[in-house]
Amino acid sequence: MRFRCTVCGTVFEKSYMATCSSCGPWGVLEVEQTLRLPEDTGDGMERFLPLLPIDPSWPRPNLRVGNTPLVAARRLAAALGLRGLWLKDEGRNPSGSIRDRASWLAGAHSRMRTVATSSSRGDSGASSAVCCASMGSLAVLFVPRETSRARLAQMLVHGARVLRVQGGPTDAQHLCDQAIRELRWYNCNTGTNPMLVEGLKTCGIEIAEVQAVDWLSVPVSDGAVIAGIWKGLKEAYRLRLIDRLPRLLGVQTHRDTTVYEEWRNDGDSGPARAPRVDPQRSEGGVPRDWRRAVRAIAESGGRMVLVSDDDILTAMTLTARLGGVYPDKHAASAVAGLSKLRPGGTAIALITGGGWRDADSAVAAGAQPIDVPNRIESVLEAMELSNWGI
Ligand SMILES: [Zn+2]
């Protein structure tokens, strides 16, 4: 196994959990190893052991991660003008998000050490907490003030130490980076630990094993998920598990446009650098893996779109009502992006996380009960007042 800098191309033979020594913090490394087919047997991540940077003798989190359903959503496809649409439901993972694929690998690598992670919405933190609980290691999580109650509850109930940092996501990231450097804690951040993208790539391989489509729509935050999925798809293509690659549709919101701006300005060139958008202006914090995200979208012949909060809330209810899958707000942007682009043909929307951790967004989208007195007439009145179609 080797590590190649995604900016200058330097190859490192040593096992790294950090970035390129020449390019500094923006020289994200990528794992290079011999391509191997997944096992025929084994559940979830266990089936991918031959493809992952892990010694099979190491203890691993005793959790069922991966092997998530690819749900055919015919009515939602029709509503979006698509010939076919499938929802890759990553909300079925133990912590309810795709980040479990990375944290499962981190759990195996960290083996009883203290681990540290930070993330803007709290998905990576909640996921690290679950996997560390399974391994008996301690998770220290750096979260910004606006982290949702549901995700905080997940972190705390699994025994993580949660440090709510003054300021925004970028401040939480900086303090986390400093703790990793100075206290030698294991780096569980997918944007800077090259091992963890390897966990995320398993989702791309699972998709390739089941369904070839024209478009794959992916919500973009720190860039690691879309980079990992693309790596998995490319490996599946080289292993002949799939005979064509989809175009990637990267979706960001008007409040988090960093990767979008770099994609629009063709930012995948030149020396290592921070993205051009001021991180304090961007709700998602600094996307450490922005360059690989931009590169993946360009390589696939894909594109990016920006969606609004209203687009996302509409997509959340449409996905739940017409597709039977309940996405969180970030995940719903995958469907909102398809609704905005309306590319036709066939598509998969990557539902990166489950909506049960994001009830406030569902309420904001109009999910309200009808209060009624305890008598049958009130049921008839409710039926008359709101058109139920029965
Ligand atoms: Zn470099």
Describe the structure.
It is a single chain. This protein is an alpha/beta fold. The protein has a domain at 70-94 and 194-364: 3-Layer(aba) Sandwich (Rossmann fold). The protein has 13 helices and 13 strands. It has a six-stranded mixed β-sheet, with helices on both faces. A four-stranded parallel β-sheet has the order 8-7-6-9, sandwiched between helices. A three-stranded antiparallel β-sheet has the order 2-1-3. Strand 1 (2-5) and strand 2 form a beta hairpin. Helix 8 crosses helix 9 and helix 10 (309-323) packs across helix 11. It is globular and about 75 Å long. 52% of the residues are buried. The structure holds zinc ion (ZN). Zinc ion (ZN) binds at residues 5, 7-8, 10, 20, 22-23, 27.
Unreliable parts: none
Strand content: 15-25%
Average predicted local confidence, pLDDT: 92
Oligomer: single chain
What best-fitting shape do the alpha-carbon axes yield? globular
CATH topology of the domain at 70-94 and 194-364: Rossmann fold
- Ligand names: zinc ion
